[in-house]
Amino acid sequence: YDTKTPQYNTSDPTSFAYTSARERWPVIITQGIDDVHRSTHGIQDEEAVKEGKWIVSELARLKYELQHDRELTPLPDDGERDVAEYNKELEALGKPKWHRVPWLYSECYLYRRISSIFKQTQKWKSYDIFARQKMSTFKSSRPAVIELATRYKDIVTELESKHTIKGAKTQGELDEAAKILFVEMCEICLWGNATDLSLLTNLTYEEIQKLQGSEARKASEKNILVNDLGKAFELLSAAQKSGKKERRVDIVLDNAGFELFVDLILAGYLLASGLATTVVFHPKSIPWFVSDVLPQDFASLIHTLADPQTFYSALSEDEKHAGKTSVPLSSAEEENIKFLFQNWSSAHAQGQLVLRPNTFWTAGGSFWRLPKIEPELHEDLKESELVIFKGDLNYRKLTADAEWPATTPFTEAIGPLGPGSGVRVLALRTCKADVVVGLPEGEDERIKATKGGGGDSRARKWAWSGKWAVVQFSDGKA
Ligand code: F6P
Ligand code: MG
Protein backbone atom coordinates (compact mmCIF):
# COMPACT_ATOMS: atom_id res chain seq x y z
CA TYR A 1 0.00 0.00 0.00
CA ASP A 2 3.01 2.24 -0.45
CA THR A 3 4.28 3.51 -3.75
CA LYS A 4 7.23 1.83 -5.46
CA THR A 5 8.34 5.19 -6.83
CA PRO A 6 11.19 6.52 -4.64
CA GLN A 7 10.27 9.34 -2.29
CA TYR A 8 12.06 12.66 -1.97
CA ASN A 9 14.89 12.40 0.53
CA THR A 10 16.76 14.88 2.73
CA SER A 11 20.05 13.64 1.22
CA ASP A 12 19.24 14.97 -2.25
CA PRO A 13 20.83 18.40 -2.78
CA THR A 14 18.49 19.11 -5.70
CA SER A 15 15.38 18.63 -3.55
CA PHE A 16 13.81 21.22 -1.27
CA ALA A 17 14.04 18.43 1.32
CA TYR A 18 17.76 19.15 1.60
CA THR A 19 17.47 22.80 2.66
CA SER A 20 14.39 22.06 4.72
CA ALA A 21 16.25 19.65 6.98
CA ARG A 22 19.40 21.73 7.22
CA GLU A 23 18.05 25.27 7.36
CA ARG A 24 14.32 25.49 7.96
CA TRP A 25 13.77 22.93 10.70
CA PRO A 26 16.46 24.20 13.09
CA VAL A 27 14.89 27.67 12.83
CA ILE A 28 11.44 26.28 13.59
CA ILE A 29 12.76 24.52 16.70
CA THR A 30 14.58 27.68 17.82
CA GLN A 31 11.38 29.68 17.49
CA GLY A 32 9.64 27.02 19.54
CA ILE A 33 12.25 27.34 22.27
CA ASP A 34 11.71 31.12 22.34
CA ASP A 35 7.99 30.63 22.59
CA VAL A 36 8.24 28.31 25.59
CA HIS A 37 10.69 30.73 27.23
CA ARG A 38 8.18 33.51 26.85
CA SER A 39 5.40 31.40 28.28
CA THR A 40 7.37 30.34 31.35
CA HIS A 41 7.97 34.00 32.14
CA GLY A 42 5.57 35.23 34.73
CA ILE A 43 4.18 31.78 35.64
CA GLN A 44 3.81 31.33 39.40
CA ASP A 45 3.32 27.57 39.38
CA GLU A 46 6.73 26.12 40.23
CA GLU A 47 5.99 22.73 38.76
CA ALA A 48 5.05 24.34 35.43
CA VAL A 49 8.25 26.39 35.41
CA LYS A 50 10.30 23.28 36.12
CA GLU A 51 8.59 21.41 33.33
CA GLY A 52 9.02 24.41 31.02
CA LYS A 53 12.78 24.23 31.56
CA TRP A 54 12.76 20.53 30.80
CA ILE A 55 10.81 21.16 27.57
CA VAL A 56 13.39 23.74 26.49
CA SER A 57 16.23 21.29 27.13
CA GLU A 58 14.45 18.53 25.17
CA LEU A 59 13.85 20.88 22.25
CA ALA A 60 17.51 21.90 22.33
CA ARG A 61 18.47 18.23 22.29
CA LEU A 62 16.28 17.59 19.27
CA LYS A 63 17.84 20.53 17.47
CA TYR A 64 21.33 19.23 18.28
CA GLU A 65 20.52 15.76 16.96
CA LEU A 66 19.11 17.25 13.77
CA GLN A 67 22.03 19.59 13.14
CA HIS A 68 24.61 16.92 13.91
CA ASP A 69 22.93 14.37 11.68
CA ARG A 70 22.25 11.86 14.43
CA GLU A 71 19.83 8.94 14.17
CA LEU A 72 16.14 9.63 14.59
CA THR A 73 15.39 8.09 17.99
CA PRO A 74 12.23 6.09 18.72
CA LEU A 75 9.39 8.20 20.10
CA PRO A 76 8.98 7.72 23.85
CA ASP A 77 5.75 6.14 25.02
CA ASP A 78 3.68 9.24 25.69
CA GLY A 79 0.46 7.30 26.03
CA GLU A 80 -0.78 7.76 22.47
CA ARG A 81 -1.78 5.02 20.07
CA ASP A 82 0.28 6.29 17.12
CA VAL A 83 3.69 5.90 18.85
CA ALA A 84 3.98 2.24 17.87
CA GLU A 85 3.23 3.00 14.22
CA TYR A 86 5.84 5.79 14.07
CA ASN A 87 8.45 3.58 15.70
CA LYS A 88 7.70 0.58 13.54
CA GLU A 89 8.33 2.69 10.48
CA LEU A 90 11.58 4.01 11.93
CA GLU A 91 12.76 0.40 12.30
CA ALA A 92 11.68 -0.38 8.76
CA LEU A 93 13.68 2.58 7.46
CA GLY A 94 16.74 1.07 9.13
CA LYS A 95 17.42 3.66 11.84
CA PRO A 96 17.92 6.55 9.45
CA LYS A 97 19.85 9.72 10.20
CA TRP A 98 18.38 13.19 9.78
CA HIS A 99 20.29 14.04 6.63
CA ARG A 100 19.40 10.83 4.77
CA VAL A 101 15.80 9.96 5.37
CA PRO A 102 12.56 10.24 3.35
CA TRP A 103 11.40 13.83 3.56
CA LEU A 104 7.75 13.12 4.24
CA TYR A 105 8.29 10.72 7.13
CA SER A 106 11.05 12.75 8.78
CA GLU A 107 9.11 16.01 8.68
CA CYS A 108 6.04 14.36 10.21
CA TYR A 109 8.27 12.69 12.79
CA LEU A 110 9.72 16.10 13.70
CA TYR A 111 6.32 17.51 14.68
CA ARG A 112 5.26 14.28 16.38
CA ARG A 113 8.48 14.28 18.37
CA ILE A 114 7.95 17.90 19.47
CA SER A 115 4.43 17.05 20.52
CA SER A 116 5.63 14.04 22.52
CA ILE A 117 7.80 16.35 24.63
CA PHE A 118 4.69 18.26 25.72
CA LYS A 119 2.60 15.13 26.16
CA GLN A 120 5.09 13.82 28.71
CA THR A 121 4.47 16.75 31.05
CA GLN A 122 1.57 17.41 33.40
CA LYS A 123 1.12 21.16 32.98
CA TRP A 124 1.89 21.58 29.29
CA LYS A 125 -0.04 18.68 27.80
CA SER A 126 -2.30 20.70 25.55
CA TYR A 127 0.06 23.61 24.98
CA ASP A 128 0.34 24.78 21.37
CA ILE A 129 3.88 25.94 20.69
CA PHE A 130 2.77 27.67 17.46
CA ALA A 131 -0.39 29.39 18.70
CA ARG A 132 1.20 32.86 18.96
CA GLN A 133 2.35 32.84 15.34
CA LYS A 134 -1.01 31.64 14.07
CA MET A 135 -3.00 34.41 15.73
CA SER A 136 -0.66 37.19 14.72
CA THR A 137 -0.86 36.28 11.03
CA PHE A 138 -4.64 36.36 11.22
CA LYS A 139 -4.56 39.81 12.76
CA SER A 140 -2.34 41.17 10.05
CA SER A 141 -4.85 40.21 7.38
CA ARG A 142 -7.45 42.60 8.75
CA PRO A 143 -8.18 44.49 5.48
CA ALA A 144 -8.88 41.26 3.62
CA VAL A 145 -11.03 39.98 6.46
CA ILE A 146 -13.14 43.13 6.41
CA GLU A 147 -13.49 43.10 2.64
CA LEU A 148 -14.51 39.46 2.54
CA ALA A 149 -16.92 39.82 5.46
CA THR A 150 -18.78 42.58 3.64
CA ARG A 151 -19.09 40.64 0.41
CA TYR A 152 -19.97 37.42 2.17
CA LYS A 153 -22.79 39.06 4.07
CA ASP A 154 -24.31 40.44 0.87
CA ILE A 155 -24.08 37.17 -1.04
CA VAL A 156 -25.35 34.99 1.78
CA THR A 157 -28.20 37.32 2.78
CA GLU A 158 -29.43 37.36 -0.78
CA LEU A 159 -29.12 33.58 -1.17
CA GLU A 160 -30.83 32.86 2.13
CA SER A 161 -33.67 35.34 1.81
CA LYS A 162 -34.39 35.26 -1.91
CA HIS A 163 -32.59 32.10 -3.05
CA THR A 164 -30.85 34.03 -5.75
CA ILE A 165 -27.70 35.93 -6.62
CA LYS A 166 -28.26 39.63 -7.17
CA GLY A 167 -29.11 40.48 -10.76
CA ALA A 168 -29.59 36.91 -12.01
CA LYS A 169 -33.03 36.80 -13.61
CA THR A 170 -33.30 33.36 -15.14
CA GLN A 171 -32.35 29.90 -13.89
CA GLY A 172 -29.58 29.84 -16.47
CA GLU A 173 -28.13 33.09 -15.19
CA LEU A 174 -28.41 31.88 -11.63
CA ASP A 175 -26.56 28.65 -12.47
CA GLU A 176 -23.84 30.57 -14.21
CA ALA A 177 -23.47 33.03 -11.35
CA ALA A 178 -23.39 30.16 -8.85
CA LYS A 179 -20.55 28.56 -10.81
CA ILE A 180 -18.55 31.77 -11.06
CA LEU A 181 -18.91 32.34 -7.33
CA PHE A 182 -17.92 28.74 -6.62
CA VAL A 183 -14.78 29.06 -8.71
CA GLU A 184 -13.94 32.41 -7.13
CA MET A 185 -14.45 31.15 -3.58
CA CYS A 186 -12.30 28.10 -4.28
CA GLU A 187 -9.57 30.25 -5.78
CA ILE A 188 -9.64 32.58 -2.79
CA CYS A 189 -9.36 29.45 -0.69
CA LEU A 190 -6.48 28.20 -2.82
CA TRP A 191 -4.38 31.33 -2.60
CA GLY A 192 -5.08 31.44 1.12
CA ASN A 193 -2.84 33.90 2.86
CA ALA A 194 -1.51 35.56 -0.28
CA THR A 195 -4.92 36.86 -1.23
CA ASP A 196 -5.03 39.59 -3.76
CA LEU A 197 -8.19 41.51 -2.98
CA SER A 198 -8.79 42.33 -6.59
CA LEU A 199 -9.43 38.61 -6.99
CA LEU A 200 -12.60 38.74 -5.01
CA THR A 201 -16.11 38.26 -6.19
CA ASN A 202 -18.42 41.10 -6.90
CA LEU A 203 -22.05 41.00 -6.21
CA THR A 204 -24.35 41.56 -9.11
CA TYR A 205 -24.61 39.22 -12.03
CA GLU A 206 -23.22 41.88 -14.36
CA GLU A 207 -20.34 42.55 -12.04
CA ILE A 208 -19.67 38.86 -11.66
CA GLN A 209 -19.57 38.55 -15.41
CA LYS A 210 -17.14 41.42 -15.66
CA LEU A 211 -14.92 39.71 -13.18
CA GLN A 212 -14.42 36.82 -15.52
CA GLY A 213 -12.49 39.22 -17.64
CA SER A 214 -10.75 40.95 -14.78
CA GLU A 215 -7.06 41.39 -15.34
CA ALA A 216 -6.18 40.60 -11.77
CA ARG A 217 -8.04 37.34 -11.71
CA LYS A 218 -6.57 36.29 -15.04
CA ALA A 219 -3.11 37.15 -13.81
CA SER A 220 -3.26 34.70 -10.96
CA GLU A 221 -5.31 32.17 -12.88
CA LYS A 222 -2.47 31.71 -15.32
CA ASN A 223 -0.41 30.47 -12.40
CA ILE A 224 -2.89 27.66 -11.83
CA LEU A 225 -1.26 25.05 -14.04
CA VAL A 226 -4.15 22.60 -13.97
CA ASN A 227 -7.60 23.78 -12.95
CA ASP A 228 -10.34 21.19 -12.43
CA LEU A 229 -12.75 23.47 -10.55
CA GLY A 230 -15.28 23.21 -13.37
CA LYS A 231 -15.48 19.43 -12.88
CA ALA A 232 -15.98 19.84 -9.14
CA PHE A 233 -18.77 22.35 -9.69
CA GLU A 234 -20.55 20.09 -12.19
CA LEU A 235 -20.46 17.29 -9.65
CA LEU A 236 -21.96 19.33 -6.80
CA SER A 237 -24.47 20.99 -9.04
CA ALA A 238 -25.66 17.67 -10.50
CA ALA A 239 -26.08 16.23 -7.00
CA GLN A 240 -28.09 19.29 -5.97
CA LYS A 241 -30.37 18.98 -8.99
CA SER A 242 -30.85 15.25 -8.49
CA GLY A 243 -32.91 16.04 -5.41
CA LYS A 244 -30.61 14.08 -3.10
CA LYS A 245 -31.33 15.35 0.42
CA GLU A 246 -28.03 14.89 2.23
CA ARG A 247 -25.05 16.25 0.34
CA ARG A 248 -21.80 16.55 2.22
CA VAL A 249 -18.55 18.30 1.32
CA ASP A 250 -15.42 17.61 3.35
CA ILE A 251 -12.45 19.90 3.74
CA VAL A 252 -9.18 18.41 4.94
CA LEU A 253 -7.85 21.60 6.46
CA ASP A 254 -4.42 23.07 6.21
CA ASN A 255 -3.52 26.30 7.98
CA ALA A 256 -5.17 28.29 10.75
CA GLY A 257 -5.74 32.05 10.73
CA PHE A 258 -6.60 33.65 7.42
CA GLU A 259 -6.64 30.36 5.51
CA LEU A 260 -9.17 28.85 7.92
CA PHE A 261 -11.18 32.05 7.61
CA VAL A 262 -11.43 31.64 3.83
CA ASP A 263 -12.22 27.93 4.24
CA LEU A 264 -15.18 29.04 6.34
CA ILE A 265 -16.16 31.52 3.65
CA LEU A 266 -16.22 28.68 1.11
CA ALA A 267 -18.08 26.37 3.49
CA GLY A 268 -20.67 29.08 4.22
CA TYR A 269 -21.15 29.70 0.51
CA LEU A 270 -21.63 25.99 -0.20
CA LEU A 271 -24.34 25.83 2.49
CA ALA A 272 -26.09 29.06 1.53
CA SER A 273 -26.15 28.17 -2.18
CA GLY A 274 -27.37 24.65 -1.49
CA LEU A 275 -24.36 23.09 -3.24
CA ALA A 276 -23.89 21.20 0.03
CA THR A 277 -26.10 20.52 3.03
CA THR A 278 -23.25 19.74 5.44
CA VAL A 279 -19.58 20.66 5.48
CA VAL A 280 -17.19 18.51 7.51
CA PHE A 281 -13.83 20.01 8.53
CA HIS A 282 -10.87 17.77 9.31
CA PRO A 283 -8.39 19.50 11.64
CA LYS A 284 -5.11 18.12 13.05
CA SER A 285 -4.79 16.64 16.52
CA ILE A 286 -1.32 17.93 17.46
CA PRO A 287 0.57 21.17 16.64
CA TRP A 288 1.57 20.40 13.05
CA PHE A 289 3.77 22.00 10.37
CA VAL A 290 3.67 25.22 12.39
CA SER A 291 0.43 26.70 11.19
CA ASP A 292 -2.05 23.83 10.74
CA VAL A 293 -5.52 24.04 12.26
CA LEU A 294 -6.20 22.45 15.64
CA PRO A 295 -9.73 22.28 17.04
CA GLN A 296 -8.87 25.11 19.43
CA ASP A 297 -7.84 27.33 16.47
CA PHE A 298 -11.33 26.91 15.09
CA ALA A 299 -12.80 27.88 18.46
CA SER A 300 -10.53 30.89 18.86
CA LEU A 301 -11.28 32.17 15.36
CA ILE A 302 -15.03 32.01 15.99
CA HIS A 303 -14.50 33.65 19.38
CA THR A 304 -12.54 36.46 17.73
CA LEU A 305 -15.32 37.11 15.25
CA ALA A 306 -17.88 37.32 18.05
CA ASP A 307 -16.15 40.38 19.43
CA PRO A 308 -13.90 41.75 16.69
CA GLN A 309 -13.58 45.19 18.24
CA THR A 310 -11.85 43.78 21.31
CA PHE A 311 -9.61 41.58 19.16
CA TYR A 312 -8.45 44.40 16.91
CA SER A 313 -8.05 46.95 19.70
CA ALA A 314 -5.95 44.74 21.96
CA LEU A 315 -2.26 45.20 21.16
CA SER A 316 0.20 42.38 21.58
CA GLU A 317 3.52 42.94 23.32
CA ASP A 318 5.27 43.04 19.94
CA GLU A 319 2.83 45.59 18.55
CA LYS A 320 3.26 47.82 21.60
CA HIS A 321 6.99 47.52 21.18
CA ALA A 322 6.74 48.59 17.57
CA GLY A 323 4.80 51.68 18.72
CA LYS A 324 1.58 50.62 17.02
CA THR A 325 -1.76 52.10 18.00
CA SER A 326 -5.07 50.42 17.39
CA VAL A 327 -7.60 51.74 14.91
CA PRO A 328 -11.16 50.81 15.87
CA LEU A 329 -13.44 49.10 13.35
CA SER A 330 -16.26 51.23 11.97
CA SER A 331 -19.68 50.13 13.13
CA ALA A 332 -20.50 48.73 9.68
CA GLU A 333 -17.28 46.72 9.66
CA GLU A 334 -17.98 45.42 13.13
CA GLU A 335 -21.49 44.46 12.16
CA ASN A 336 -20.35 42.61 9.03
CA ILE A 337 -17.79 40.59 10.93
CA LYS A 338 -20.35 39.75 13.60
CA PHE A 339 -22.63 38.51 10.82
CA LEU A 340 -20.00 35.89 10.03
CA PHE A 341 -19.97 34.86 13.65
CA GLN A 342 -23.75 34.46 13.73
CA ASN A 343 -23.89 32.69 10.39
CA TRP A 344 -21.11 30.24 11.15
CA SER A 345 -21.95 29.57 14.76
CA SER A 346 -25.56 28.85 13.88
CA ALA A 347 -24.45 26.48 11.08
CA HIS A 348 -22.19 24.83 13.64
CA ALA A 349 -25.00 24.59 16.21
CA GLN A 350 -27.34 23.07 13.61
CA GLY A 351 -24.81 20.42 12.69
CA GLN A 352 -24.25 21.77 9.17
CA LEU A 353 -20.67 22.68 9.95
CA VAL A 354 -18.88 19.85 11.68
CA LEU A 355 -15.36 19.43 13.02
CA ARG A 356 -14.11 15.83 12.83
CA PRO A 357 -10.54 15.21 14.07
CA ASN A 358 -8.72 11.94 13.35
CA THR A 359 -5.15 11.01 14.24
CA PHE A 360 -4.71 9.62 10.72
CA TRP A 361 -4.03 13.18 9.54
CA THR A 362 -0.92 13.37 11.73
CA ALA A 363 0.48 9.93 10.90
CA GLY A 364 3.96 9.62 9.37
CA GLY A 365 2.84 7.96 6.14
CA SER A 366 1.09 9.08 3.01
CA PHE A 367 -2.63 8.95 2.21
CA TRP A 368 -1.94 5.88 0.08
CA ARG A 369 -2.36 4.01 3.35
CA LEU A 370 -5.82 5.31 4.15
CA PRO A 371 -7.91 2.34 2.90
CA LYS A 372 -5.67 -0.15 4.66
CA ILE A 373 -4.90 1.48 8.00
CA GLU A 374 -7.98 3.63 8.56
CA PRO A 375 -10.84 1.82 6.78
CA GLU A 376 -13.50 3.57 8.85
CA LEU A 377 -12.28 6.98 7.80
CA HIS A 378 -12.14 5.75 4.21
CA GLU A 379 -15.78 4.63 4.43
CA ASP A 380 -16.71 7.95 5.95
CA LEU A 381 -15.05 9.93 3.14
CA LYS A 382 -16.89 7.84 0.54
CA GLU A 383 -20.12 9.29 1.92
CA SER A 384 -19.00 12.74 0.90
CA GLU A 385 -19.83 14.28 -2.48
CA LEU A 386 -16.41 15.88 -2.58
CA VAL A 387 -13.34 15.80 -0.34
CA ILE A 388 -11.24 18.93 -0.70
CA PHE A 389 -7.58 18.60 0.34
CA LYS A 390 -6.04 21.96 1.12
CA GLY A 391 -2.43 23.00 0.79
CA ASP A 392 0.98 21.65 0.06
CA LEU A 393 1.47 18.98 2.69
CA ASN A 394 -1.87 17.33 1.93
CA TYR A 395 -0.81 17.17 -1.72
CA ARG A 396 2.51 15.62 -0.81
CA LYS A 397 0.62 13.03 1.24
CA LEU A 398 -1.85 12.35 -1.57
CA THR A 399 0.97 11.71 -4.03
CA ALA A 400 3.16 9.94 -1.42
CA ASP A 401 5.78 12.68 -1.91
CA ALA A 402 7.35 10.52 -4.58
CA GLU A 403 9.55 11.46 -7.53
CA TRP A 404 6.87 11.10 -10.21
CA PRO A 405 7.55 12.46 -13.65
CA ALA A 406 5.52 15.68 -13.83
CA THR A 407 3.29 14.25 -16.56
CA THR A 408 2.10 11.32 -14.41
CA PRO A 409 -1.69 11.47 -14.26
CA PHE A 410 -2.97 12.78 -10.90
CA THR A 411 -5.27 9.75 -10.61
CA GLU A 412 -2.25 7.43 -10.85
CA ALA A 413 -0.08 9.38 -8.41
CA ILE A 414 -2.71 9.26 -5.66
CA GLY A 415 -2.71 5.43 -5.85
CA PRO A 416 -5.36 3.78 -3.68
CA LEU A 417 -7.30 7.05 -3.34
CA GLY A 418 -7.62 7.24 -7.12
CA PRO A 419 -9.77 5.10 -9.45
CA GLY A 420 -11.93 2.61 -7.58
CA SER A 421 -11.53 4.31 -4.19
CA GLY A 422 -15.06 5.70 -4.17
CA VAL A 423 -13.65 9.00 -2.90
CA ARG A 424 -14.12 12.14 -4.98
CA VAL A 425 -10.88 14.02 -4.41
CA LEU A 426 -10.16 17.67 -5.14
CA ALA A 427 -6.68 19.00 -4.29
CA LEU A 428 -6.31 22.79 -3.93
CA ARG A 429 -2.58 23.22 -3.77
CA THR A 430 -0.07 26.02 -4.08
CA CYS A 431 3.28 24.39 -4.81
CA LYS A 432 5.81 24.60 -1.97
CA ALA A 433 7.67 21.33 -2.52
CA ASP A 434 9.12 19.23 -5.35
CA VAL A 435 6.32 16.84 -6.19
CA VAL A 436 4.01 17.95 -9.01
CA VAL A 437 1.96 15.67 -11.25
CA GLY A 438 -0.65 15.92 -13.96
CA LEU A 439 1.12 18.57 -16.01
CA PRO A 440 0.91 18.66 -19.79
CA GLU A 441 3.99 17.46 -21.67
CA GLY A 442 6.75 20.08 -21.68
CA GLU A 443 5.19 22.33 -18.99
CA ASP A 444 7.70 21.47 -16.27
CA GLU A 445 10.58 22.19 -18.64
CA ARG A 446 8.96 25.43 -19.76
CA ILE A 447 8.67 26.78 -16.20
CA LYS A 448 12.10 25.46 -15.25
CA ALA A 449 13.49 27.64 -18.00
CA THR A 450 11.93 30.80 -16.50
CA LYS A 451 13.91 32.98 -14.09
CA GLY A 452 14.51 31.14 -10.80
CA GLY A 453 12.78 28.06 -12.18
CA GLY A 454 15.75 25.75 -11.70
CA GLY A 455 17.25 25.93 -15.18
CA ASP A 456 19.34 22.98 -16.23
CA SER A 457 19.83 21.72 -12.70
CA ARG A 458 17.73 18.73 -11.73
CA ALA A 459 16.02 20.91 -9.13
CA ARG A 460 12.40 21.86 -9.73
CA LYS A 461 12.91 25.21 -8.00
CA TRP A 462 9.84 26.84 -9.48
CA ALA A 463 7.66 24.55 -7.37
CA TRP A 464 9.07 25.67 -4.02
CA SER A 465 7.78 29.19 -3.61
CA GLY A 466 3.98 29.02 -3.63
CA LYS A 467 3.79 31.12 -6.76
CA TRP A 468 2.33 28.28 -8.85
CA ALA A 469 -0.66 26.14 -8.10
CA VAL A 470 -2.56 23.04 -9.22
CA VAL A 471 -6.22 22.22 -8.70
CA GLN A 472 -6.74 18.54 -9.49
CA PHE A 473 -9.72 16.23 -9.38
CA SER A 474 -10.24 12.48 -9.28
CA ASP A 475 -13.74 11.01 -9.39
CA GLY A 476 -12.86 7.79 -7.55
CA LYS A 477 -14.73 5.62 -10.05
CA ALA A 478 -13.34 2.23 -11.04
O1 F6P B 1 7.77 23.49 1.53
C1 F6P B 1 7.79 23.96 2.79
C2 F6P B 1 6.75 23.32 3.65
O2 F6P B 1 6.91 23.59 5.00
C3 F6P B 1 6.69 21.83 3.44
O3 F6P B 1 7.52 21.22 4.28
C4 F6P B 1 5.26 21.53 3.69
O4 F6P B 1 4.84 20.52 2.87
C5 F6P B 1 4.59 22.80 3.39
O5 F6P B 1 5.51 23.81 3.29
C6 F6P B 1 3.55 23.22 4.34
O6 F6P B 1 2.72 24.04 3.63
P1 F6P B 1 1.18 23.91 3.71
O7 F6P B 1 0.79 24.63 4.94
O8 F6P B 1 0.67 24.55 2.45
O9 F6P B 1 0.84 22.45 3.75
MG1 MG C 1 0.19 23.79 6.72
Series of H and E elements: HHHHHHHHHEHEHEHHHHEHHEHHEHE
Overall structural class, as computed from helix and strand content, comes to: alpha/beta
What is the mean pLDDT?
91
Tally of separate helices: 20
By DSSP, the count of extended strands is 7
Say what oligomer this is. single chain
Outline type: globular
* Whole-angstrom Rg: 23 Å
Q: Low-confidence runs (pLDDT<50, min 5 residues)?
A: 195-205, 207-214
List the helices and strands and how they pair.
Elements: H1 16-40, H2 46-67, H3 82-92, H4 103-119, H5 131-139, H6 142-162, H7 171-191, H8 205-212, H9 215-221, E1 224-227, H10 229-241, E2 248-252, H11 258-273, E3 278-282, H12 295-306, H13 308-313, H14 317-321, H15 331-349, E4 353-355, H16 370-373, H17 375-382, E5 386-390, H18 391-398, H19 410-413, E6 425-430, H20 443-448, E7 469-474
Parallel strand pairs: 1-7, 2-3, 2-5, 3-4, 5-6
Antiparallel strand pairs: 6-7
Helix pairs in contact: 1-2, 6-11, 6-15, 7-8, 7-11, 12-15
The structure holds 6-O-phosphono-beta-D-fructofuranose (F6P) and magnesium ion (MG).
Please describe what this structure looks like:
There is one protein chain. With 478 residues, the chain is an alpha/beta fold. Helices cover 51% and strands 7% of the residues. The protein has helices at residues 16-40, 46-67, 82-92, 103-119, 131-139, 142-162, 171-191, 205-212, 215-221, 229-241, 258-273, 295-306, 308-313, 317-321, 331-349, 370-373, 375-382, 391-398, 410-413, 443-448, and strands at residues 224-227, 248-252, 278-282, 353-355, 386-390, 425-430, 469-474. The chain has a seven-stranded mixed β-sheet with strand order 1-7-6-5-2-3-4. It binds 6-O-phosphono-beta-D-fructofuranose (F6P) and magnesium ion. The site of 6-O-phosphono-beta-D-fructofuranose has 12 residues, from helix 1 and helix 18.
